Here is the input.
Amino acid sequence: MRRRWYLLLVVLATSLVLPAGPAAASTDKSADDPEIVGGAPARAGEFPWTVHLSVGCGGALYSPTVVLTAAHCVGRSGSDSSIEVTTGLDRFHPTQRVRSAQVKRADGFTDVTGGNDWALIRLARPLTGATLPVAADTATDSGLFTVVGWGSTREGGAGTATLRKVQVPFVSDAVCGDAYRKAGYGFVASDMICAGKMDTGGIDSCQGDSGGPMVRRDDAGAWRQVGIVSWGEGCARAGFPGVYTQASRFAAAISRAAAAM
Here is the structure.
């Protein structure tokens, strides 16, 4: 399984042979941390709420002082000034940078295949720019989604310097869950949403994309976050779509947690 976490990818890059059976997930797809596979470079200002985390993950600005990311990208809840959060297309030449102040990891998170894969990072000071609302219901939880991140462009590859994007189609819980359960993984339909091409593969998030946003426009044309890059089997493999935390499932809990930080 792949987590889409860049640091883990770096550790495994020299001998990336995935074990059989379930694996943890992360903001990218590949081995354990994915990047955007089969996509294209993002344009300046196209996804202004996307941020890069120094731990090798992505995230989205929930508010000027709070970032929404994946639980598997961060440590336990509490004070934490170790994470640098940056904005801008080029992660090596950011337009803004700020340190974390506090982390709130979802209660009950143990492993990506067990669900609850979300977390909040409170920043030491506000970042300027747009924020990304979380989908409040399932109205946008189908159709064609967009995933953005700095992850690998191929399974086992290194992350990219420049933000990339890819469009991925919705895959039902029944189809996605069946594929992963047959492969020996856990799958929590209530907490997860899947996207990718079941028949051909070729497009996906990958290592390094973990924690980043999967988005779709609502009926008014505004972006809504419908998913958080979480896990998957390899990157862009046929028969194994990407698995994302279903944002609408946790919208109320995320709101309460952000208000309390």
